[in-house]
Amino acid sequence: MDIEFSPEDLAFRDEVRAFIAENYPKELRGKQDEGDELSKEDFLSWHKVLAKKGWVAPAWPVEYGGTGWTVTQRFIWSEETARADCIRLMPFGLTMVGPVIYTFGTPEQKAHFLPRILSGEDWWCQGYSEPGAGSDLANLRTRAVRDGDHYVINGQKTWTTMAQHADWGFFLCRTDPDAKAQEGISFILVDMKSPGIEVRPIITLGGEHEVNEVFLEDVRVPVANRVFEENKGWTCAKFLLAHERVGIAGVAASKRGIERIRQIAATELDGDKALLANPFFRRKVAELEMDLTALEFTELRTLAGEAAGKGPGPESSALKIKGSEIQQRLTELTLEMAGHYGAPYFRGFGEGDNEHPIGPGAWANRAAPTYFNARKTTIYGGSNEIQRNIIAKMVLGL
Ligand SMILES: Cc1cc2nc3c(=O)[nH]c(=O)nc-3n(C[C@H](O)[C@H](O)[C@H](O)COP(=O)(O)OP(=O)(O)OC[C@H]3O[C@@H](n4cnc5c(N)ncnc54)[C@H](O)[C@@H]3O)c2cc1C
Fold first, then answer.
1. Domain check: are 222 and 257 in the same one?
2. 111 occurs within a structural domain
3. pLDDT per residue rounded down to tens, the chain (398 residues)
4. For residue 130, how far is its CA from the centre of ligand 1 (angstroms)?
5. Using CA of residue 187, residue 189, residue 193, residue 194, what is the dihedral sign?
6. Ligand 1 within 6 A of 164 CB?
7. Based on C-alpha coordinates, what's the Rg of the chain?
8. Which regions of 179-288 does DSSP assign to beta strands (E)?
9. In terms of CB atoms within 10 Å, which of 212, 277, 303, 310 comes out highest?
10. pTM of the prediction?
11. 134 Cβ closer than 6 Å to some ligand 1 atom
């Protein structure tokens, strides 16, 4: 989609491009394109460059460390970082708990946690889901019981992304077992180094260690770490989920993904012609591109609403559904391009394996694990079926 930018916006775009060209860590270049697994250090190296520049949390209010960019500038930023294949930043601090803390937190919580999220000093994880409470999140059973000026927490969380690296976690805990499900929950910040916390890995289909189970046994947490009122944590939880879903749409990254598919398909052969010359394949790429353009317009409307002071509402559910489906279709096309070179590989099958790709390149060897990994996109952040329920209720009034 061609958007006409003002001269000021074009100057901003040039500034962003120059900054990325000069400052994006050399060791990260190409890693994402090749589907490499990224380490904690990888994530933090780009985070820290941006923190130093003051660009790590463009959406935050300026008083808490945001950039004060206009909606167009934020759009340019996400386009340019995706275009340059910059790795995404971990969302748990920046786009999840950060906004909850500056919206609902005490002055002390803001002063302590927000600068540490910006600097990358604290790595956060999200303790919402439980074995018996995923879609039906309000059914959660992890208990926090008051004991003087502490809560004592017992329970189990699951699917906790990157908890193996986490310094802090934001946990939904039941503080009133007698109240209606949504009314007895509190939003509590937990130091992941506290005694009584055990993080156990879950290895996913593609061979990655990305998610975990987290067990909490008699974990003592100061009451001062509760955000907002006791038993009113559901308000924070819903606010956070709406922010999470907008980010999940990943429009700019998907645009980069299509460009990458086009590049590969222009050189990979299908018989004696380029794959992109195959009308069946070209049609699939074109259909994907059209759907992505439609999604981009929807995202721009949401951003314009935000600029006018409207927080993300039920439209974030539509963005999540379409964005996640497109991400999956991108990995399906990549796997199709890889053909049998994508078949036998497993992420992390050997140190330095990217240096010795088999077939057309490392991207093909990574195609299967990346495809398997992307099955998550229609599940996490609230499954797409649940998003359809939200649209039916909130948008269609059914
Ligand atoms: C890779 C990955 C990372 C994740 N990271 C985190 C994390 O960091 N922190 C965290 O707290 N959680 C995380 N999650 C958990 C995620 O939010 C849940 O998996 C999701 O909400 C679905 O819950 P569930 O797995 O319990 O499935 P269930 O709720 O058991 O759902 C099973 C199936 O039934 C369908 N279904 C359920 N209820 C309805 C309904 N009412 N109407 C129609 N269909 C329905 C669902 O759509 C799904 O297809 C992660 C999940 C994945 C896959």
1. no
2. no
3. 566 789 999 999 999 999 999 999 999 988 877 777 789 999 999 999 999 999 999 989 999 999 999 888 988 999 999 999 999 999 999 999 999 999 999 999 999 999 999 999 999 999 999 999 999 999 999 999 999 999 999 999 999 999 999 999 999 999 999 999 999 999 999 999 999 999 999 998 888 899 999 999 999 999 999 999 999 999 999 999 877 766 678 898 999 999 999 999 999 999 999 999 999 999 999 999 999 999 999 888 887 787 777 776 788 889 999 999 999 999 999 999 998 888 766 555 444 455 566 778 888 888 988 999 999 999 998 899 999 999 999 989 98
4. 9
5. negative
6. no
7. 22
8. 185-191, 197-203, 209-222, 226-227, 269-270, 273-274
9. 212
10. 0.93
11. yes
Paired tokens of 196: 């009584």
256 and 182 within one domain = no
**Catalytic residue IDs:** 244
Tokens coding 138? 């309000």
Asked if 300 and 368 sit in the same domain, the reply is yes
Q: How far is the CA of 163 from the centre of ligand 1 (A)?
A: 17
Query: Between the CA of residue 382 and those of 25, 246, 317, what are the distances in Å?
Result: 33, 12, 9
Say whether both 253 and 226 belong to one domain.
Answer: no
Does the residue 144 lie in any domain? Answer: yes
Query: Which CATH number goes with the domain that contains 213?
Result: 2.40.110.10
Ligand 1: nearest atom to the Cα of 211: 3
Do 220 and 266 lie in one domain? The reply is no
Residue 267 sits in the same domain as residue 390: yes
Ligand 1 within 6 A of 90 CB?
no
- End position of a domain, from candidates 40, 62, 89: 89
**131 Cα nearest atom in ligand 1:** 26
* End residue of a domain, out of 185, 201, 231: 231
The closest residue, in CA terms, to atom 44 on ligand 1 is 385
Phi, psi of 215 (to 5 degrees): -105, 135
Nearest to 28 by CA among 38, 17, 15, 20: 38
226: in domain: yes
Domain match, 381 and 263 both:
yes
203 is in which domain, residue-wise? 124-231
Same structural domain, 335 and 379: yes
| C-beta of residue 279 within 8 angstroms of C-beta of residue 265 | no
Per the structure, how many domains does the chain have? 3
